[in-house]
């Protein structure tokens, strides 16, 4: 049985991390037997989660997990030719290297969002760590987003950036059920968690409103949650 090291469920999601939920969806799609192990700290080869314990060792990134699953014969891009596979690859990169910054800013940098993120991620920590680590990690996230450039932009420019990404996703989706085919693929496993978490954010933000104004994407999120998400709860976990 494969063991997925993951952050715990939170915010109505199987994990508070979109990358962990992506890995869960990939594992569900693969048909392999797996269970989560909930972690408080990013305990993986690259000091982030998810990380997958396999017979070949610990795989320490969601895209590396995808590559490993494909190597085992799992059809993660069913029926894709080389061009479709390349388009799916670029779509995943758009989500994870562009839209990700908007979700992270909404959760970690905006004070109203941080009010909810802090207890969701750090509430289970022992009190001494809970008094220090949240602001330490928030500072690192703030610095990273500044050096990346996203939070240097004005809010209107950030939303123009995000709006272009959401429009592109909606155009790729078209009138279909899934991004590239009549069947879901790894691209959907990447897209749905990010969009779902943007929508589920408990604070009214320009990002949430931008997503909710795009009806086809909202229908896509509902369909993806229903068909791709695993049945997990905070009590379902293997022992360390």
From TrEMBL:
Keywords of this entry: Transferase
Cell membrane in keyword set: no
Organism: Salipiger thiooxidans
Segment forming the signal sequence: none
UniProt GO molecular function: transferase activity
Span of domain Thioredoxin-like fold: 18-112
UniProt keyword Transferase, yes or no: yes
Xref: InterPro entries: FAX/IsoI-like, Glutathione-S-Trfase_C_sf, Glutathione_S-Trfase, Metaxin_GST, Mito_Protein_Transport_Metaxin, Thioredoxin-like_fold, Thioredoxin-like_sf
Ranges for domain Metaxin glutathione S-transferase: 164-223
Name of the protein this chain belongs to: Glutathione S-transferase
PANTHER family named in the record: FAILED AXON CONNECTIONS-RELATED, METAXIN RELATED
Lineage of the organism: Bacteria, Pseudomonadati, Pseudomonadota, Alphaproteobacteria, Rhodobacterales
Matches recorded under Gene3D superfamilies: 1.20.1050.10, Glutaredoxin
Entry GO terms, CC: cytoplasm
């Amino acid at each position: 049985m494969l063991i997925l090291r993951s952050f715990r469920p939170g915010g109505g999601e199987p994990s508070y991390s979109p990358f962990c939920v992506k890995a869960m969806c990939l594992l569900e799609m693969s048909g392999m037997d797996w269970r989560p192990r909930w972690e408080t700290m990013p305990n993986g080869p690259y000091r982030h989660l998810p990380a997958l314990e396999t017979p070949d060792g610990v795989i320490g990134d969601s895209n590396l997990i995808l590559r490993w699953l494909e190597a085992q014969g799992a059809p993660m891009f069913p029926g894709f030719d080389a061009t479709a596979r390349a388009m799916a690859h670029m779509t995943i990169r758009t989500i994870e290297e562009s839209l990700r910054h908007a979700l992270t800013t909404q959760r970690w940098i905006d004070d109203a969002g941080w009010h909810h993120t802090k207890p969701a991620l750090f509430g289970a920590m022992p009190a001494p760590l809970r008094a220090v680590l949240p602001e330490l990690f928030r500072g690192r996230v703030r610095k990273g987003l500044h050096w990346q450039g996203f939070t240097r932009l004005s809010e209107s420019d950030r939303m123009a950036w995000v709006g272009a990404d959401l429009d592109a996703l909606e155009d790729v989706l078209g009138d279909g059920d899934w991004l590239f085919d009549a069947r879901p693929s790894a691209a959907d496993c990447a897209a749905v968690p990010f969009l779902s978490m943007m929508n589920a954010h408990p604070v009214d933000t320009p990002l949430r409103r931008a997503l909710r104004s795009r009806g086809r994407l909202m229908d896509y999120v509902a369909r993806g949650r229903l068909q791709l998400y695993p049945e997990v709860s905070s009590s379902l976990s293997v022992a360390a």
